[in-house]
Every structure is written in C-alpha cells, then in structure tokens.
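For the sake of clarity, the format in which proteins appear in this thesis is described at this point. Each number in the token line that follows is a code from a learned vocabulary of backbone shapes. One such record is shown here in full, so that the layout can be seen directly:
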Amino acid sequence: MTPEIWIIDDERTIRDALSQTLDIEGFHSRAFANAKDALEQLSTAFEGVIISDINMPQMDGMTFLKKALDVDSELSIVMLTGHGDISTAVSAMRQGAYDFLEKPFSTDHLLDVLKRGIDKRQLVMENRELKRQLETQSAPGPRILGNADSVKQLRRSIFHLKDQDGDVLLQGERGTGKELAARFIHDQGTRQDEPFVGMKCRQIPEALIAMELFGSEQLAYATLPSYKNSKIAAAGKGTLFLDGIEALPLNVQEKLAALADSSERPRIIASTRVDLTNSIAQGHFSAALFKRLSATSLVFPPLRDRSEDVITLCQNFVRTTASRFGVAPPTLDAEHKDKLLQHPWKGNVRELQAYSERWVLMGEQCLKNEGGTDHEKEHDTLADRILKVERAILFDALNRHNGMLKEVQNELGLARKTLYEKLKKHHLDKQNFKG
C-alpha cells in the first residue's frame, strides 16, 4: 500500500490542487485545514510524508513542525513556503524538516521530494521494526518473528499455551515455525524441568515406528505396555513432540489416542502439514486421536499470506548472519525487495532464512549462479552440504586472517593452486576480507 500524504494548508485551493495532483499520480492523500487537527491525529505509526504550509493562522507551520517532531523526531515533513521566505524554510530544515517547496513548484519537483521523503520514512519504520524483532529474539518468548496480524495472534496463543498442560496440535506448511513453537511451549511451561523428546514421524520406516514410539511391536499393542526403551519412556513427564503425526500408521494412532487417558505420560505436541479432517474422511487418520489433539490447535500461516513480513524477516536474518561472521551486511535495495516479494517462498520462513544466510556468506553473484531462490530444495544433497561446509571453513579462515592467503594456506594445509581454485569455485575474494 502506498503511504499516505498529509496536506496541511489553510487555503482550500492549495489543498484541492495538491490532492488532485497526488490522486492522479497514484498517491493517497488527506487534507487538513489547520495544523491542530493534524497534530491531534499524528502518531509514531504514521508511515507517509506531511506537507505543511508555514504561514497559517492558529498554529503556524514552524510551531506544528516543533510539536510534530516532539511526537516523532524522524518524521518526513516538507514545508511549503512563499517566494522570498527561503530563510524561514532553511530554519525549518535546521529544526528537523525533511525538505521545503517554494511556491510555485512543478509537479516533477513535488513528486521527487515526496518519493525521497517516503523512502526515508520507510527506512526509519523498517529499522524500528527490525529493532523490535531483535529485542523479541533476545527476550523470553516464542521466536516466531513478524508483524502480520495472524502472527501477532499466533504469538499470543503460544505464550498462553505455555501455562496450560493439555496436548496441542500445530498445523502449517513446512518451515513455518512449528518446532520453534513446540520448544518454546515446553521450555517456558510447567514441564520445563522434564525432558523434551522429538520424533520425526515421516523419517522413520513404517515398520519401525511402533518400536520407536512404544519400545517394541509387542508392547505397542499390549493392554498395559511398559514403554521401556521408547520415546514415550524417554520423555517421561515432559514433552513428546511428534513432527508429522499424519505419517503414523492408523493402528499406532489408535494406541496413542488410548494413551491420552493415562496421567503418567508426557504431554504430546503434534505437528502436521496436511488437513487431518480430510485424512479422517479417507480413513487414514484416527478420529479419536484428532479429537484429543485438536482441542487445542494452532494454525501457522504460510509466508505468502503475510508478505508484509518478508522484508523484515530477511533484514533480521541478514544482519544476524553478518554479525555472527563479523562482516558487513549486504544492502537490501528496492530491486532486491521486489524480487523477495514476488518469490512464492514455498519453503516459508525456513527457505527465506537459508536464502538470507547464503546471500551474506556467498554474495549476490553466487546466488545467481545457483539459480537464486527459484531452485530452493527442501533437503540438500550430500554434495551440497559438503560444499557449504567447505565454503564456511574458507570464509571463516579468510575472515580471521584478514584475507591473507598465505596464512589461510598454512592453516588449512592447502597448496597455493588448490586454495585459489577453491576461492574461485566459492566466489570468495580476498579483498573483501581486508581489515
């Protein structure tokens, strides 16, 4: 959405003319006949640009400027001034105005000033949001980042659940943060001093699932199984996190539903990517188990449904990665933001995090060479993983030795030619590591 432009001028003809011009150019404008009305509605959440006349009755532009900057010192305020009043406009800029327009002014000049003012204000708002997100990350609380309404509600629900003791069902696509939420609910909840045991149901062969979960095939179907040497026993009175619970065989699901009646058992937090109501209708999932779990259920929105968070998340991941490796974060320009917003992010936040980390460590050119975000894969091959580890080792050594190749060569025990070949393969330039 285009940020709103406020117009403050006591002359109706000027207000109407500016509003019409901005409407034609695709801006959403709002006009005020006096500065007092605008000031009463101003807050730090304002994301646009304010155009204010200097000479007005009741409250003049200079007084408005001072009071507005008291509300938010980083507002983008453009002052309107008549011919011969440049000294006042210059004084206004010294006091914090973003720019001034001398009447009469061209439409092109107006648009140029507004676009620059919007860019400045949006950078301020993005930096503030990033700071809030980083503070959230370092404080106790669920690490589900974002500012979309659905994510805010999700964080509130997760925070509330930590003080409850019932089973929980987490629903959402891969990479949306289900495991993060499960760990927070356990780590901050009533069972925090007990074990947290995870089981990735989709990665265990069906023939071995019962043994893994209950301890043995026989015990899984006994009337009173002991669960010795099982995930259930390992979790004790803590939390058993079943990731991909839809992959459990139906008979194992039924036994798990019966276990819910026992007081001597772990809390079950289950996650799924599929619509379990459809699975029940098709006879693939236990209605009894679903009833037990879905009494408390959370839905994790995909990243494509909260695109307003993409830029903030990317900035967070980029800066965190850059800080971890002691390098300057790359610049997220307008063109890059457009690409991020246009990408479908089928892997959700996990894919965006992996992309951001590679961008910091491997550079823009390397991302292009490997196909950018369009070729994200859920699982890397062994060769891919080995390449990433090799690059990380080279990157770390270059960083510690300030790009001194002789020292890197000695530390890693590489021949000179081999080192140069590896640097070329990983698109690493020693000049980028000079102190």
In short: Strands lie at 4-8, 28-32, 49-53, 76-81, 99-102, 168-172, 196-200, 239-243, 267-272, 297-300. The mean pLDDT is 84. The longest strand covers residues 76-81.
